[in-house]
């Protein structure tokens, strides 16, 4: 477990917790690490909820598939981001989304009840972890509202520009990279890939953007 300490120190869930406290804390909350190969399912829609995950290596994505098999990409996550915390804390019985490895990945899984319930030893870090968890859930809620604002635009062009402007603000730069390939970006925006690619080409010809693969520049 020690090989993951450097990554865990940067995880917002453990903000304010010293490295010397990590071994005892991870043991107390019954954290364990699992490895997944590319395209392997980590959590499946309909599974019982109760686990919070931390990405230790690789990249994962959170997605939802409708009755007809159409995929909506909700998020792509990299180390040391969390997943599943909102559903676990909300007391949802069944997972409404699936979590899949985009690359070969390692994930730390933590039983939510162990994390948010003070143990018999009254470990001091429990209060800190609960505080951090609430902060993370609040931030994720803001991000969700941001996505709703983007995908609520009427046209593919408006959705693209709204998304790219959000990315520019997050990177504090007109030049930035996005974590999606073309199909994943189309799934995230809820549009057809061909129509989106046509709009990207049109925006480039209009002199509004330039791009190469997943690197973009707002002009």
UniProtKB/TrEMBL annotation:
Q: Please state every residue range assigned to the domain named HTH crp-type.
A: 154-219
Q: Which GO CC annotations does the UniProt entry carry?
A: cytosol
Q: Which InterPro entries match?
A: cNMP-bd_dom, cNMP-bd_dom_sf, Env_Response_Regulators, HTH_CRP, RmlC-like_jellyroll, WH_DNA-bd_sf
Q: Which domain of life is it from?
A: Bacteria
State the Gene Ontology terms under molecular function: DNA binding; DNA-binding transcription factor activity
Record key words, sorted: DNA-binding, Transcription, Transcription regulation
Q: Where in this chain does the record put each Cyclic nucleotide-binding domain? A: 13-85
Q: What's the protein name?
A: Crp/Fnr family transcriptional regulator
Q: Which organism is it from?
A: Butyricicoccus porcorum
What does the organism's lineage look like at the top?
Bacteria, Bacillati, Bacillota, Clostridia, Eubacteriales
């Amino acid at each position: 477990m020690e090989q993951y300490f450097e990554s865990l120190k940067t995880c917002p869930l453990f903000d304010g917790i010293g490295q010397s406290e990590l071994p005892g804390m991870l043991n107390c909350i019954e954290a364990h690490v699992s490895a997944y190969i590319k395209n392997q399912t980590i959590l499946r829609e309909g599974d019982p909820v109760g686990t919070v995950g931390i990405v230790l290596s690789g990249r994962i994505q959170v997605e939802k598939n409708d009755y007809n098999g159409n995929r909506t990409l909700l998020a792509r996550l990299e180390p040391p981001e969390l997943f599943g915390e909102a559903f676990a804390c909300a007391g949802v019985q069944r997972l409404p989304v699936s979590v899949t490895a985009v690359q070969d990945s390692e994930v730390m899984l933590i039983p939510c009840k162990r994390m948010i319930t003070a143990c018999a030893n009254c470990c001091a870090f429990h209060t800190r972890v609960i505080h951090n968890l609430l902060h993370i859930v609040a931030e994720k809620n803001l991000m969700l509202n941001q996505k709703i604002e983007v995908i609520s635009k009427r046209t593919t062009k408006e959705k693209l520009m709204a998304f790219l402007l959000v990315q520019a603000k997050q990177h504090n730069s007109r030049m930035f990279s996005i974590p999606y390939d073309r199909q994943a970006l189309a799934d995230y925006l809820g549009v057809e890939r061909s129509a989106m690619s046509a709009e990207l080409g049109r925006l480039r010809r209009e002199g509004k953007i330039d791009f190469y693969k997943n690197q973009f520049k707002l002009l």
